[in-house]
Amino acid sequence: MSDNWVGKSISITCLDPGGVFQGTISTVSPEAITIIRAFRNGVPVPKPDTEVTIASANIVNLELIPATPSSNLATHAISKPTPIKHPNFPAASVQEIGSLARIPIPNISRHVFGKASPSSTGGASSIMNNGKFYPTKQFENGSGARNASKPMDIVAPMKNGNGSYKNERKKSRRQYNSKNETFGTPVDDPMMDEDFDFEKNLALFDKQAIWDEIDATQKPDLLRQTVPMQRRKYRHDENVITSEPAQLRQIEVDYNSSRDYVTAEGLIVPSIPLIVRNRVQTAAEALGLTWERQCDILARGTTEVALQLLGGGRRLVPNNSHQWPTIVVICEEPYNDKRSEIGICTGRQLATQGLKVVAHVREFTHLSRSSRELDLFNATGSAYTNNVKDLPTGVDLIILSVRSAILTPILLKWISESRASVLAIDPPVHGISQVQIKCSILPILPLDDINRHTCGKLYLCNLGIPDKFFREAGIKYKSPFGHKFVIPIHLVD
Q1: I want to staple 474 with a disulfide (CB 3.0 to 4.6 A). Which of 215, 254, 388, 410 is the partner?
Q2: Which fold, 252-491?
């Protein structure tokens, strides 16, 4: 008996908050009924092929929806409702309509679910026309002929100059449909929970192919051949032939350089041996450019790179005082090592910028020379320690100023756990063991055989040494710095 209802259109009223479902019967059983091409509260489900199964316990009322033929009894202007892009329900024939009208609705529920439905043949039912539901009148006296009223557009009594309401009705219908499409979606619509993938759909759209197709169809073939293609117009910054910067060699050495580096402007910077660099520095010291002055200049360049790594003007502003950066400077014995003095001097200059700086120095074994850098560092209010356990957590930047390529295991462990960027001041050519250096700053000229993978990005600092001392060391020198005191250099492939 249940097979007789398969393919019929039905309206099912469910318990709250289920609402009213309309659709075509797919399967029927005493426990549930399954419909396809379903509508819920007049809105089609997101996928037309989705099967909706409704348990018999949730059904309050169900009614068959017969299809009615077009009626000629309407005397008013009838506007056809806008169809929804959805598969239409199969229309029943006149004989089927008559037979369905003579079948009492309670019999369906009695055969299918074993209980009577509150609806009867004398009550109101609804039919579907092009995917929308409209009220209909029941058959009179059980006959097969049924008078159905079509939906009408109720418009204001406006007419144009020729006495026709046609244009006004079209305009009113367009306004109604536009408003209904915008504000007619219920808040519980399942489609509102689905996110639209803009990137995926944009990737499917080939704009160039569309433009080519438009250009191909705008002109006849003969005209396309005779009329030259319009030249593309470029902006002032696009109408330039891009090319690699010219590489100029302004610095020359009297010996074979192992590696060449290039600046952002394309200037070649050769590498030199350590003994040649020491010769340049010693000659400058002999004429008054003492080590302390060179130390201050290199520390000033290191401070500039450190401020860039910390975010510069985007972070170091009064509004970000709640996340002010912390810096740790790691060096050896400042009284016995010149390179450690550069690190302490850098920490002092960073502290005078208002940053929190903590220095880690090795315990003093003996004093081989006098130095005031540590005393100047203490004068800023910053602290130094000999114990790794006293170093702070949540560090933003670590500055390494050591000569040795091997650090103590406890110091290596702290550096690894801090996960902060590491800036090295004139590191060993092969880097520091088990330390990932982000960038390094070098004085005068880069050394031979420096490893860019272990030393990170290389910066060159101008110490203000006159060209005379470069010439005495066998170097024909011309400054590559231009308007900067610190410049990045890259290895020439």
Answers
A1: 254
A2: Rossmann fold (3.40.50)
CA–CA distance, 329 with 302 (Å, rounded to integer): 12
- The 8 Å CB, 24+ separation contacts for 138-142 are 138/101, 139/98, 139/101, 142/101, 142/102
What integer pLDDT is reported at residue 257 of this predicted model?
A: 76
Rounded Cα gap, residues 465 and 205, in angstroms: 60
| Domain regions of the chain by residue span | 8-64, 252-491
Taking the complete model, does pTM exceed 0.70, yes or no? Answer: no
Residues of the chain with pLDDT under 50: 70-80, 85-160
Count of CA atoms in the C-beta half-sphere (13 A) of 394? 5
Output the pLDDT for position 165.
Answer: 54
Q: Checking DSSP bridges between strand 32-40 and strand 20-28, what pairing results, if any?
A: antiparallel
User: What is the SS3 string spanning the chain?
Assistant: CHHHHCCCEEEEEECCCCCEEEEEEEEECCCEEEEEEEEECCEECCCCCCCEEEEHHHEEEEEECCCCCCCCCCCCCCCCCCCCCCCCCCCCCHHHHHHHHHCCHHHHHHHHCCCCCCCCCCCCEEEEECCEEEEECCCCCCCCCCCCCCCCCCCCCCCCCCCCCHHHHHHHHHHHHHHHHHHCCCCCCHHHHCCCCHHHHHHCCCHHHHHHHHHHHHCCHHHHHHCCCCCCCCCCCCCCCCCCCCCECCCEECCCCCCEEECCCCEEEECECHHHHHHHHHHHHHCCCCHHHHHHHHHHHHHHHHHHHCCHHHCCCHHHHHHCCEEEEEECCCCCCHHHHHHHHHHHHHHHCCCEEEEECCCCCCCCCCCCHHHHHHHCCCEEECCHHHCCCCCCEEEEECCCCCCCHHHHHHHHHHCCEEEEECCCCCCCCCCCCCEEEEECCCECCCCHHHHCEEEEECCCCCHHHHHHCCEECCCCCCCCCEEEEEECC
Predicted pLDDT at 368? 62
8-64 to CATH, choices 2.40.10.350, 2.60.40.10, 2.30.30.100, 3.50.50.60: 2.30.30.100
